[in-house]
Specification:
The protein has 390 residues and is α/β, with parallel strands linked by helices. It is built from 15 helices and 14 strands. Bound molecules: pyridoxal-5'-phosphate.
């Protein structure tokens, strides 16, 4: 198996080698990474729920009562009362008839897309959609067509040309995970109606964050009930683990019978389900958490824009800082780390060669002091790495 070392060597030579950074202790704004205290600006734990006392307590109580494992897949003997309660809870939260749980968001996308479309169908996606959507589309054997990021006239042209396929499925992230911008959902929904396609959105980064009640971008745009398939994850703002899909009773019943990533894997552990329910309770009952996150987002976005950084039109808690080449991006990321700030550099194949960036994400639990420290280090970066302005 000599090819292993040869390929690893090639990855290293291109500056694309990836290492795991080990965090000691819980997921908090301040963490210990490799023995160094660091401010973490790289987590999807947007509301700080991953280490919230209420989620921990709910999880501990569930473990006492139900044990740690579900013991089987959902359709054999793994469906415990917490699973169905959580599914009802999610459906209520999203204002839909029904919901189905998956063991992760990745598995949710895989299960839904592969069971809804096949060889005679077409899946139409935004070029910046999450890898799990692309993988699912490939695995479905449907024709995969891609439109440039948020380009609605190209989407329309594709739809015009696709009328011969049996089914047309448009899938998009509602918040794009690397650019931090929003999909133009109202336009997508109206194009889908015009050309008889159905729409699926991935609310991984929007759930708990967007909309007045934290229900997601669907709520933010006033499109509740108008999108056929809404997928989300319990692993980001909700602080726990698991994926879900909401929609009509019939859609969910169909997925229970068809989605292979639901059928052929062990059900989520009870402690995780209980934590998710506690997370949903907090999101519904404590809007202050979301308000704090948005205050932090505005503060940092304004500060960095004032210094002249290119934030790529970010409208969300995900704030990319465009740098350009791989070398400079990684150099700045290393410099940040030396200053006690963790923000990863994002490189190919995740983003194009000349669009490397620092990808920052904010949390409700960052303090004003944390944010001021970040801005202070970025003003040094501006002088050190961008001489003569950029
Ligand atoms: C994180 C993410 C997923 C996968 O969710 P997990 O629960 O982490 O498996 C799917 N889609 C998008 C857009 C994501 O950002």
């Amino acid at each position: 198996m000599d090819f292993l070392s040869k390929e690893l060597q090639e990855i290293k030579e291109k500056g694309l080698y990836r290492d795991l950074r080990i965090i000691t202790g819980p997921q908090e704004p301040r963490v210990i990474i490799e023995g160094r205290e660091c401010l973490l600006f790289a987590s999807n734990n947007y509301l700080g729920l991953a280490n919230h006392p209420r989620l921990k307590k709910a999880s501990q109580e569930a473990i006492e009562r139900y044990g740690v494992g579900a013991g089987a897949s959902r359709l054999i003997s793994g469906t415990m009362e917490l699973h169905t309660r959580l599914e009802e809870r999610i459906a209520r939260f999203k204002g839909r008839e029904s919901a189905i749980l998956f063991s992760s968001g990745y598995l949710a996308n895989l299960g839904v897309i592969t069971s809804l479309v096949g060889r005679e169908d077409v899946v139409i996606v935004d070029r910046l959609n999450h890898a799990s959507i692309i993988d699912a589309a490939r695995l479905s054997f449907a024709k995969l067509l891609v439109y440039p990021h948020r380009d609605m006239s190209r989407l329309e042209r594709i739809l015009e040309r696709c009328q011969a396929y049996k089914r047309r499925l448009i899938v998009t992230d509602s918040i794009f995970s690397m650019d931090g911008d929003l999909a133009p959902l109202p336009e997508i929904v109206s194009l889908a109606k015009k050309y008889q396609a159905f729409v699926m959105i991935d609310e991984a980064h929007a759930t708990g964050v967007f909309g007045r009640k934290g229900r997601g971008a669907e709520e933010h745009f006033g499109l509740e009930g108008e999108i056929d398939i809404v997928m989300g994850t319990l692993s980001k703002a909700i602080g726990s683990l698991g994926g879900f899909v909401t929609g009509s009773q019939r859609l969910i019943e169909y997925l229970r019978n068809k989605a292979r990533s639901f059928i052929y894997t062990t059900a989520l552990p009870p402690g995780v389900c209980a934590a998710s329910m506690a997370g949903l309770d907090l999101i519904e009952n404590e809007p202050l958490l979301r308000e704090r996150l948005w205050q932090n987002v505005r503060y940092i976005r304004d500060g960095l824009l004032r210094m002249g950084f290119d934030l790529m039109g970010s409208e969300t808690q995900i704030i990319p800082i465009l740098i350009g080449g791989v070398g400079k991006t990684m150099e700045i990321s290393e410099y940040l780390f030396s200053q006690g700030i963790f923000i990863p550099g994002i490189r190919p194949p995740t983003v194009p060669e000349d669009r490397c960036r620092l990808r920052m994400s904010l949390m409700a639990t960052h303090t004003r002091e944390d944010l001021d420290r970040l801005l202070e280090v970025f003003s040094v970066i501006k002088r050190r790495f961008f001489r003569g302005g950029s």
